[in-house]
Design goal:
The complex is a heterodimer of chains A (569) and B (200).
Chain A (H helix, E strand, L loop, with lengths): L1 E3 H11 L4 E4 L6 H8 L5 E4 L3 H14 L4 E5 L3 H15 L4 E7 L15 H5 L5 E4 L6 H13 L6 E6 H5 L1 E3 L19 H13 L3 E5 L1 H5 L3 H11 L3 E3 L14 E4 L6 H9 L2 E5 L5 H4 L2 H4 L5 E6 L13 E4 L2 H14 L6 H15 L15 H11 L5 E4 L3 H9 L8 E2 L10 H11 L5 E6 L10 H6 L5 E6 L4 H10 L15 H7 L3 E5 L5 H10 L5 E6 L9 E2 L8 E2 L6
Parallel strand pairs in A: 2-3, 2-4, 4-5, 5-7, 6-7, 9-10, 9-12, 10-11, 12-13, 13-14, 15-16, 15-17, 17-18, 18-20, 19-20
Antiparallel strand pairs in A: 1-8, 21-22
Helix pairs in contact in A: 1-2, 1-6, 3-4, 3-18, 8-14, 10-14, 11-15, 16-17, 16-22
Chain B lengths: L37 E10 L4 H11 L6 E6 L5 E10 L1 H13 L3 E6 L5 E12 L2 H13 L3 E5 L3 E8 L1 H10 L5 E6 L3 E4 L8
Classes of the chains: A alpha/beta (569), B alpha+beta (200).
C-alpha cells in the first residue's frame, strides 16, 4: 500500500491505538493535520500553547499505562514544547512527541521557523530521531513507542521534515523492534535477589522506600504484598504517592524535604533499607554525607543501572523491571517460613509510633482565615479520597502531597523532578480526557495557575469539567517561605500585585468561578463544585498569606535536621 | 541553594532522648568527600549514525564529566563506530560515566579498557623550524623517538610520531620549544591486550 508520509504518521498512531493526540498545527505539520482531518480514530485535542500539549500527553501516560502523544510544528512550536518534554524526562514518563521540521533541502539554511530540534531536545529526551526518508517513518515511530515504554520510560521525539510527510512510499507497520544497542534488563539477578531476601529477613529496624517507579510500572500491589508479608514500614516519595496506600497503618507518609517526621527519622535510623523504583535524590535524602553517617544496608531495585549508587552507595543492587524482580522476591518469601525477628520489629514500630506522636502535620486552625491545609483536608473528604489530583508547583503542591491521602496509584499527578509551574490545568486536561466522568481536581496557586491559564479555553472547547482549587495567598508562597526562613524576611519579587479576579476570569472563559473567603465556606464550596458534574469550577480560595510548609529540611541539610514548627526558626 | 547557616540549637530534630530503644545519632567525624582521581581509557562501540557523537559529548558536558581526549572512527563494520575517551575521575564518577554512556540508545557497548592490561597509542604531527644546527638536532631526536620526518622544506620538518601520550609529551620536552611551529595530535585510541575483546 503506497501512502504519503503524513498518512503513514497517522496510520502509525492508529496502529499504536493512540486515542488522543494533543497538539497545535503550523506550517511544517500541515500535511499531517490534513490526514488527521480525514479520519476519526485518533482524536486531536487543540491546546492553546504547545507546552500544554506535552503536559496533557504526559498526564495521559501518568494516569493510565499508555504512551501519551503530542504533535507540534517546527521552530517555536517545538521550543514551546521543550518545557513539557523536560518535565516528562525528569519524571521518566513515556510520551512520544512528533514535531514538524522545515523541508529537508532547507535544513541548515536558517529557514523560517527552523530550529535544530534534535539538538535542542537531546539533553531532555530518552532518544530522538530526525526522519529523512518517508520509508523510515513507520519503523522510527514503532521504535519511538518501544523506547518510550520499555526500560526506564521517557519521552522520545520524532522530527519529520515537511517534504518527508508529502513523499510517498510503501507502508507496512513493523510488528516488532530489535535494536542491538538497546536491551534493557528485565529479570533481576537471582543471586542478588536471594541476598536481598536474607538481609530483609535479618533486619531489625527495616524500612521500605518506594518511588515513582512503583507507580509507573504498576507494581503497587506487589509492594503491598511484600510490605504485608514482612510487616515493614513504608514511605513513599513525592512521585510514589499512592504506590502504597497512605491510610494503611504501615505507611509512615511521604519522606524528604517536606516529608513527615516519622518517615525521615525512620529513613535515617533504619538498619536495612529496601529502595524500590526510587533514586535517592536531593529532595529525598538531603545531604548524602549526613545520610551516610548512620550505617545501614541498602537494597536498591531499579530498572536503570545509572540510578544505583549515584548519590548513595548501595550494598545489594538489583537491576531489573520492578514487576519481575518483585515477583521473584515474593516467590522467595512465600517459599520460606522464615520471617524477620518479631520482637525487634515490635520495638522498631514502638519507636516509629513515638515519632508519629510528634504529629508533625498538625497546624493551627482558624475560624477567621482559610488555612490552605484545611482546603486539602476538605478536598480529600469531599472526594472520598478517590479523585485524580493534579497540582502545580510550590507550597500548594506540598500541602496536597501531605494532606490528600492517596490510596491508589496513578491518582497523584505532579511535576516532581523538574518542578514545572503551570502543569496543573494541562495535567488535569489529560487526566479528564483519559478518565471521562471521574472527578479531577487541580490544586494550584495564583502564581502557578497563571502560567498556563490560557488552557481554560481548551477546557471549554472539550467540555472538561475539572475542579480548580486555587490556594490564593498573593505570594509566590514557596519563594516567600524561603525568603522568610533564609533571607531575613526580604520578600524580593515574591508578592504579586494586580492579580485578576479569578472567578470572573473563569466566567469570561465560559466556566463557573467562585471566590471563597471564610473557613466555614470551604466544604460547601467544594461540594458545590463536585456537584456540578458538567462544569469546570474555579474555586478561588483566599488563604492565609503567612502559612508555611512544615516539616522542612533545608537544602544541603541532613534528613533529620527538620524545622518542625515556627518555634524552630 | 541557600548557604545561610542556621543555628543548630534547640528545636532541631535530634536523636531520640536516652531511654529510647535507638542509640543517639552518632556524630561521626566528617567523611572526606575528595576522592582520588584516576585517568581512565573508556572504549565504546556505537551506531555509526548522525548525532551519535554529539550524544556522547553532550552527556559529558551536561553532567560535568571530564574529557581529556576523544577519538572516533568507523570500524571494520561500517555501521558501527569505535570511540576512545580519556577521562579523569574518581571510581564513583567513572562508574557513573560508564553507566550513563550505556544508557544512550546509540551506544552498543562500553568498556573501561584501563581496568586491565591494554595498549594506548596516539599519533602526533609536529612541524618544527629546521635550519642550521637545529636541522641535525631535530633529525637526531626524531630518530631516538623512532619518529619519521614526513615533510621537508628548506627551513622546516614535519615529524610524525606514534606512541603513548607520555612519549609524545617527552618528545615535545626534548626539543627546543622555540623551534615548534605547529603540533597536531589525534588523541588516544586504546585496546585491551590478548583475549579482552570488545565486540557487539
Amino acid at each position: 500500500m503506497v501512502l504519503t508520509g503524513a498518512e503513514i504518521v497517522v496510520r502509525c498512531l492508529q496502529e499504536e491505538k493512540v486515542e488522543y493526540v494533543f497538539g497545535y498545527p503550523g506550517g511544517a505539520v500541515l500535511f499531517i493535520y490534513d490526514e488527521l482531518f480525514k479520519q476519526d480514530k485518533v482524536r486531536h485535542v487543540l491546546v492553546r500553547h504547545e507546552q500544554a500539549a506535552v503536559h496533557a500527553a504526559d498526564a495521559v501516560a501518568r494516569c493510565t499505562d499508555k504512551v501519551g502523544v503530542a504533535l507540534v510544528t517546527s521552530g517555536p512550536g517545538l521550543t514551546n514544547a521543550v518545557t513539557g518534554i523536560a518535565t516528562a524526562y525528569m519524571d521518566s514518563i513515556p510520551i512520544v512527541i512528533i514535531s514538524g521540521q522545515v523541508p529537508t533541502a532547507a535544513i541548515g539554511l536558517d529557514a523560517f521557523q527552523e530550529v535544530d530540534t534534535v539538538g535542542i531536545t537531546r539533553p531532555c529526551v530518552k532518544h530522538n530521531f530526525l526522519v529523512k526518508d518517508a520509508k523510515d517513518i513507520a519503523p522510527t515511530i514503532k521504535k519511538a513507542f518501544y523506547l518510550a515504554k520499555t526500560g526506564r520510560p521517557g519521552p522520545v521525539l520524532v522530527d519529520i521534515p515537511k517534504d518527508v510527510t508529502a513523499a510517498k512510499c510503501e507502508f507496512s507497520y513493523p510488528q516488532s523492534v530489535s535494536m542491538r544497542s538497546y536491551n534493557p534488563t528485565v529479570k533481576g539477578h537471582q543471586g542478588q535477589i536471594k541476598k536481598a531476601l536474607q538481609l530483609l529477613l535479618e533486619a531489625k529496624k527495616p524500612m521500605i522506600y518506594a518511588g515513582g517507579g512503583v507507580v509507573l510500572s504498576d507494581s503497587s500491589e506487589r509492594l503491598i504484598r511484600i510490605a504485608r508479608m514482612l510487616g515493614f514500614p513504608v514511605t513513599n516519595t513525592l512521585m510514589g504517592l499512592g504506590g502504597y496506600p497512605a491510610t494503611d497503618k504501615q505507611s509512615v507518609g511521604m519522606l524528604g524535604m517536606h516529608g513527615t517526621y516519622e518517615a525521615n527519622m525512620a529513613m535515617q535510623y533504619c538498619d536495612v533499607l529496601l529502595a524500590v523504583g526510587a533514586r535517592f535524590d536531593d529532595r529525598v535524602i538531603g545531604n548524602p554525607a549526613h545520610f551516610a553517617q548512620v550505617a545501614r544496608k541498602i537494597i536498591h531495585i531499579d530498572v536503570d543501572p545509572s540510578s544505583i549508587s549515584k548519590r548513595v552507595r548501595v550494598d545489594v543492587p538489583i537491576v531489573g523491571n520492578l514487576p519481575e524482580v518483585m515477583d521473584d522476591l515474593i516467590r522467595l518469601l512465600e517459599a520460606t517460613t522464615e520471617r524477620p525477628d518479631r520482637e525487634a520489629l515490635d520495638t522498631w514500630w514502638k519507636q516509629i509510633d513515638e515519632w508519629r506522636r510528634r504529629d508533625c502535620l498538625k497546624y493551627k486552625k482558624s475560624d477567621e482565615i482559610i488555612k490552605p491545609q484545611l482546603v486539602i483536608e476538605k478536598l480529600w473528604q469531599v472526594t472520598n479520597g478517590d479523585a485524580f489530583v493534579t497540582s502545580d508547583v510550590g507550597q500548594h503542591q506540598m500541602w496536597a502531597a501531605q494532606y490528600y491521602k492517596f490510596d491508589k496509584p496513578r491518582r497523584w499527578i505532579n511535576s516532581g523532578g523538574l518542578g514545572t509551574m503551570g502543569v496543573g490545568i494541562p495535567y488535569a486536561m489529560g487526566v479528564q480526557m483519559a478518565h471521562p466522568g471521574s472527578p479531577v481536581a487541580v490544586v494550584t496557586g495564583e502564581a502557578s495557575v497563571q502560567m498556563c491559564i490560557q488552557e481554560l479555553s481548551t477546557c471549554k472547547q472539550y467540555r472538561l469539567p475539572i475542579k480548580i482549587c486555587n490556594l490564593n495567598n498573593r505570594y509566590l508562597g514557596m519563594v516567600r517561605q524561603w525568603q522568610e526562613f533564609f533571607h531575613g524576611n526580604r520578600y524580593s519579587e515574591s508578592y504579586m500585585d494586580s492579580l485578576p479576579d479569578f472567578a470572573k476570569l473563569a466566567e469570561a472563559y465560559g466556566h463557573v468561578g467562585l471566590r471563597v473567603e471564610k473557613p466555614s465556606e470551604v466544604e460547601d464550596a467544594l461540594r458545590e463544585a463536585f456537584r456540578r458534574k458538567n462544569d469546570l469550577v474555579f474555586l478561588d480560595f483566599q488563604v492565609d498569606q503567612t502559612e508555611n510548609v512544615y516539616p522542612m529540611v533545608q537544602g544541603g541539610k541532613g534528613l533529620t535536621e527538620m524545622i518542625l514548627a515556627p518555634e524552630d526558626l | 541553594m541557600s548557604s545561610v547557616s542556621r543555628p543548630t540549637g534547640a528545636g532541631y530534630a535530634r536523636a531520640p532522648a536516652s531511654g529510647s530503644p535507638l542509640p543517639a545519632l552518632p556524630w561521626l567525624p566528617k567523611i572526606s568527600t575528595s576522592k582520588p582521581t584516576m585517568r581512565h581509557v573508556i572504549s565504546l562501540l556505537l551506531e555509526n549514525e548522525a548525532g551519535a557523537l554529539s550524544r556522547v559529548s553532550g552527556l559529558f558536558s551536561a553532567r560535568g564529566y571530564n574529557i581529556e581526549s576523544l577519538t572516533v572512527a568507523a570500524t571494520e563494520d561500517p555501521s558501527m563506530s569505535r570511540m576512545t575517551i580519556i577521562s579523569i575521575g574518581s571510581d564513583d564518577v567513572i562508574e557513573q560515566i560508564t553507566k550513563q554512556l550505556n544508557k544512550l540508545v546509540d551506544v552498543v557497548k562500553v568498556v573501561d579498557v584501563s581496568e586491565a592490561a591494554h595498549i594506548e597509542r596516539e599519533l602526533m604531527l609536529i612541524k618544527v623550524r629546521a635550519t642550521g644546527k637545529d636541522r641535525e638536532e631535530v633529525k637526531r631526536t626524531a630518530d631516538i623517538f623512532r619518529g619519521h620526518i614526513v615533510d621537508v622544506t628548506e627551513s622546516t620538518y614535519i615529524v610524525e610520531l606514534t606512541g603513548d601520550p607520555t612519549k609524545l609529551d617527552a618528545f615535545i620536552g626534548a626539543i627546543d620549544r622555540t623551534l615548534i611551529l605547529e603540533t597536531v595530535r589525534t588523541g588516544v585510541c586504546g585496546i585491551g591486550r590478548g583475549d579482552r575483546i570488545l565486540r557487539a
